[in-house]
Amino acid sequence: MRKEYNFSKGKRGTVIPSPGKTRITIMLDDDIIRHFRERAEAEGIGYQTMINSVLRIAAIEAKGRTTVEKPVTESALRKILREELREAG
Fold first, then answer.
1. What's the start-to-end Cα distance of the chain, in Å?
2. How far apart are CA 87 and CA 66, in angstroms?
3. Domains of the chain, residue spans
4. Could you give the CA distance from residue 47 to residue 40 in angstroms, rounded to a whole number?
5. Residue 13 has pLDDT above 90, yes or no
6. How far apart are CA 5 and CA 42, in angstroms?
């Protein structure tokens, strides 16, 4: 470890940009956050991912489209893999 480090060219913020996503601050009611955290934990996904999916569905439905692809959850993937392994073995 060095005694001194040079941070003169350092930048604040995230190290790796996330293409296609924008960080925002949003105020949501406590019961809404609690609901999404519980649902997301039960399905094995992040609550922010779930909120994003629900907002995407609402946006698509608002445009008049009805086909929406749900993200594959960890529990669903495990179930599929178990079935495939059972059939292969």
1. 52
2. 34
3. 30-88
4. 5
5. no
6. 45
- Token pair, residue 65, equals 């489209």
Neighbours of 51 (CB within 10 A): 19
Taking only the tens place, the pLDDT of each residue in 22-54 is 888 999 999 999 999 999 999 999 999 999 999
Confidence band, pLDDT 50/70/90 cuts, at residue 76: confident
How crowded is residue 46: how many other Cβ atoms within 10 Å of its Cβ? 13
**The model's pTM:** 0.55
Kindly state the average pLDDT of the residues 68-80. 82
If we measure between CA atoms, which residue out of 45, 65, 48 comes closest to residue 57?
65
Task: Please report the DSSP string for the chain in residue order.
Answer: --S----TT---S-SS--TT---------HHHHHHHHHHHHHHTS-HHHHHHHHHHHHHHHHTT----PPPPPHHHHHHHHHHHHHHH-
